[in-house]
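Sample entry copied in:
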Amino acid sequence: MTRFDAIAADDRQALFADAIRAHDERDSAFLTIEAAAGDANASDDAAAADESTPWIQFADGTLNLDCTDDELDRLKSLLDEFPAFTVDDLATPEDVDGTNVRVTARTDEERVAEFVDRVFRRVYDRPEAYRAWVAAI
């Protein structure tokens, strides 16, 4: 892999699919994808700086992500559109706000890539032109 970030939806999905293939080829422990806070074209926006950077990890056909209660509701709604994806585990530690979600994906890299992009846009409320990057393969 030679590129590690993308802004346009088609480019992001191609990046995610390529990263999944690289992860499989390298037999790495996991793949981590992150989405920038706020508008990818904005300069040092104070609101974006205060916002956390959402991430999704992928390994062995399972996506791992953290969600607030509202994000979890949006994720469950999105899953209705992706029947090949199912929630495998929900963990809500007492000392942490939010829920760790494991989603099993029974499909190919391109469909996983599309799902990941939609999670960042709909669940984590990223704009159409958000910047995503592959942080670890």
In short: The beta strands are 5-6, 31-35, 55-59, 62-67, 85-91, 99-105, 132-136. The helical segments are 9-26, 46-50, 69-79, 109-123.
